[in-house]
């Protein structure tokens, strides 16, 4: 683990126009480490006895600090999230967000901060997207759906405590799912009226996922809030009826 002074000294050499290879040879620091510091310079926090306890690890487990924020973050995680172990200790939670939606990136950060306020959050820039990333000891406690392989290759079933949160905050879960693997689009069609062809536009929501379990969670939650839906194909759910679209607009809305 390199201290902040060492990291700044290495980056100062890079800023002078030196190559990563030459700075690595001079300092003895790997090129990968120097490259990563250009995105995030401060060291990852070490586990601390002063850290707030995990509500799921208590003798009597309880809900996360902010259940509504958790329901939204659960939707993001099930859509575009993953958890991976740190080489030494702890875990990374990563949520992929497209660069085109800065509001979504900010909202994702806010949700993580509300659920685990003691864990650091930072942004890793990738091609066309960012990974909103948080490092902490207890992300697998928060998302027990974590496991090896892709989500659609394993069962995704909510724990009873998660289902209680979803039952209390269904729109937050739907918002997270739509903001990750869904979209709000404007379709159009034509009709002949009084011998004249006219164009009509209408709003539709789509949700796409390869996991049958996640699709079922999405449609069960739509049923719970009174939103009509239909299956467009094996991996796509469509919401197109006017009253249901109005509900989605009022509670979910488009990504921005």
What topology does this entry show?
Layout: H1 4-15, H2 20-27, H3 31-37, H4 67-80, E1 81-85, E2 91-98, H5 102-115, E3 120-126, E4 129-136, H6 139-142, H7 160-168, H8 170-181, E5 182-193, E6 196-208, H9 212-225, E7 230-233, E8 236-239, H10 242-251
Antiparallel strand pairs: 1-2, 2-4, 3-4, 5-6, 6-8, 7-8
Helix pairs in contact: 4-5, 4-7, 4-8, 7-8, 8-9
* H/E element order: HHHHEEHEEHHHEEHEEH
CATH topology annotation of the largest domain: Endonuclease I-creI
Give the beta-strand count. Answer: 8
How many domain modules?
A: 3
Low-confidence regions: 46-50
CATH C-level class of the largest domain is Alpha Beta
What count of helical segments does DSSP give?
Answer: 10
Give the full name of the CATH homologous superfamily of the largest domain: Homing endonucleases
| Major β-sheet annotation | 4 strands, antiparallel
Q: State the secondary-structure class.
A: alpha+beta
Strand percent estimate = 15-25%
Q: Overall pLDDT, averaged? A: 88
CATH architecture of the largest domain: Roll
Which sequence of strands runs across the widest sheet? 1-2-4-3
What is the percent of helical residues?
Answer: 40-55%
Structural Rg: 22 Å
Ends: how far apart?
38 Å
């Amino acid at each position: 683990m390199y201290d902040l002074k060492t990291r700044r000294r290495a980056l100062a050499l890079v800023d002078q126009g030196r190559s990563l290879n030459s700075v690595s040879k001079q300092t003895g620091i790997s090129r990968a480490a120097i490259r990563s510091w250009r995105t995030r310079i401060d060291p990852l926090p070490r586990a601390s006895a002063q850290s707030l306890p995990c509500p799921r690890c208590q003798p009597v487990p309880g809900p996360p600090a902010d259940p509504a924020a958790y329901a939204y973050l659960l939707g993001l995680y099930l859509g575009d999230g993953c958890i991976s172990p740190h080489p030494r200790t702890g875990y990374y939670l990563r949520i992929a967000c497209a660069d085109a939606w800065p509001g979504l990136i900010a909202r994702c950060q806010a949700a993580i901060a509300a659920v685990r306020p003691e864990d650091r959050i930072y942004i890793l820039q990738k091609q066309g997207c960012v990974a909103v990333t948080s490092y902490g000891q207890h992300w697998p406690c928060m998302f027990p759906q974590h496991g090896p392989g892709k989500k659609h290759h394993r069962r995704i079933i909510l724990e009873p405590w998660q289902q209680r949160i979803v039952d209390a905050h269904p729109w937050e879960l739907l918002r997270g799912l739509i903001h990750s693997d869904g979209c709000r689009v404007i379709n159009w069609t034509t009709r002949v009226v009084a011998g004249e062809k006219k164009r009509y536009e209408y709003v539709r929501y789509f949700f796409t996922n390869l996991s049958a379990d996640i699709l079922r969670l999405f449609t069960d939650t739509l049923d719970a809030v009174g939103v009509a839906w239909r299956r467009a194909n094996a991996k796509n759910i469509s919401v197109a009826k006017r009253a249901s679209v109005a509900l989605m607009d009022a509670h979910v809305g488009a990504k921005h």
